[in-house]
Amino acid sequence: MTGKDIEQRHEDQLKGSSDAGGVKAYLLHRAKPYLPPWLGVGALGVSGTVGHLVWQGDAAMGIGLTLGSVVLTGAAWWAGKATGPERRLHSAITVAAGSAWFTSAAVFTPSYNGLAVGGAVAALTWNIRQMYRRDPDGVKAIAEGSGLLEKVGLAKAMMQRIKVEPNRVTVPIALEPGEQTNDDVAKALPRIASALDLPTTAVRYSPDPGSARRGDLVVVPMDMLSEIILWEGPALPGGSIADPLVIGRYDNGDPLQLWLPADVQAGRNGTHLLIAGMSGSGKGDGALNVLTEILSRRDVVVWLSDPKSFQDFRPLLPGIDWAVEAGAGTEAMVEAVQAVIPARTRWLGIHKYRAWEPACAEPQEDPNHSCRADGPCGCEGMPFLVTWFEEAANTLRALGDDAFTGIAQEARSAGVSLVVSLQRPSHDQMSTSTRASLPSVLCFGVDKRDEGFALTDEVLDAGAHPGAWGNRRPGYCYLVTPGVDESLYPSPARTWRFTWDSVSLMETLAAWAGRNGARPDPITAGGAAAVVGKAYTERAQHKEENPDDEEQTVSRLDDEDLDIDPNEELPQPQPGEENVIFDQGDGRELSREEARAALQEILDEFENEGTMVIGVADVMEHAERFGRKRGWVSGELQDLLRDGRLALTPKAGRYRIVPAMADA
Known about the structure:
The chain is built from 23 helices and 18 strands. The protein has 664 residues and is an alpha/beta fold. It has four domains: 20-132; 139-219, Threonyl-tRNA Synthetase, Chain A, domain 2 (2-Layer Sandwich), CATH 3.30.980.40; 245-327 and 355-360 and 382-519, Rossmann fold; 590-664, Orthogonal Bundle (Arc Repressor Mutant, subunit A).
């Protein structure tokens, strides 16, 4: 019998005979399950009255009845240890209240008004519990009485006490020793979903980490994520990045949250985050949920690379310290991140921090975290750093599939989190080393063939199935991250929805972050400036510019042209000016020294404009200035590499310009 059959049977009972006899019989039948608590109240009243007639004024009996009440309440608590905590507490309170009224009524004077009110409340509380035991989806009934495990090939498995919660049934399972393992349950999940007439994502299995044959089968009969909930702002504005980032809700209504920094006391590691999902799966909204939560915290700095020209993130730019698009800007950011990691790690070490914590972002006034031996050092604090690479497939194609490997492996110990967002985290997009160094994943709907790239086998075996959503359930996701109970890894969740109405609030949040958020510390800012120079020190401030101001800008820069009307016709040449020819050069070939000087000027220009990562092709765009071919340029760049003017990057053939005033 399926859940629908049980529900239909309930409807048939409601549609029974409607004549006077049928209605009376139906009402009596429906009332019978709820009568015992009321009968108990009546029996208590009668027994209290009889006791009053027998023991009124008997002090010794009063003491005895009081002690008996205590013993009876304790017995009720002890006997309820095999039940759930709510039922155990409810039973003990009911027994304590009933025995106290009986003692008072027997020795003193019965308070029938108190019995009427208190007894009615107690009886109704038990009636309410009884009503909630009805299981309209039939999950519990099927599990208990219809041979569910036999139907799915687990006949010898034993089900233990079933726990029924609102929209969730948990069935502890003990498998046959030596014949069945937790893998057998994982393989049977699709058949269990079929037997219960539910989607595959509604059934999952959480193995007991201490046993190969025990675990919890979890069934969620109703999809409570179907309701779209709009983003209403950050969960904890002004809080710390060490507090949880709340980005949505699970299918039972619990908050969907993650942590980025480590917590040594809680035993939680710091983490990097992979955001994955196919086009239309809601990955963009998921990224906005994460980024808005980050920007709402007081002790974090964000660097963002977005090849999509900030299509989704533009309202948030005023709150972001450094934002670049694809190409040279992203290359410079990768170089800067790699450079600041050892500098930040060194700072944490000399200030005696095992990992980044909120106190790191404050001035160092604690002698226990001082870089001096004679007391507090007063050093400026170091905020947490989030480096975000949106649509990272573009970056990986340009820099190589292991562009983030070094960052991912070393950054967590430096108070740096890497966020990588892309549609397909497959082996042809990023190296396996990088993927293994991204322990957290926020996985939206993907192609079924990509499930194994996004989630581990253990999570998929437990019932996670993002391929079942594809792009048909925008916002539906799985979250695997430190700090979250592993039993929740295969639990579906959904992020908040962003709409055009969200833009104004996003702009307000970005303005707040720009005014009140953390500023880059000297260690981080200095490290970035030392390796990429003006690419960081003269980073864009993300103010909206008016394209109609171009002429005014030119006029401000060229004061001698202030009186020129650009629409006025040029004057006719004066006599003798008709044959004037501007200098075309003498046509001679530059010497090697002159060509090298021209190359140095080109490098200086790249540095001045903030283009800090170059290759031979970039230099050859200016070949007319030094008159040489690619082979000569390649050799000169190698010489500059040896001289320290250039440095290697992870991408073959690409070089980082070492700022002229910085050490190599």
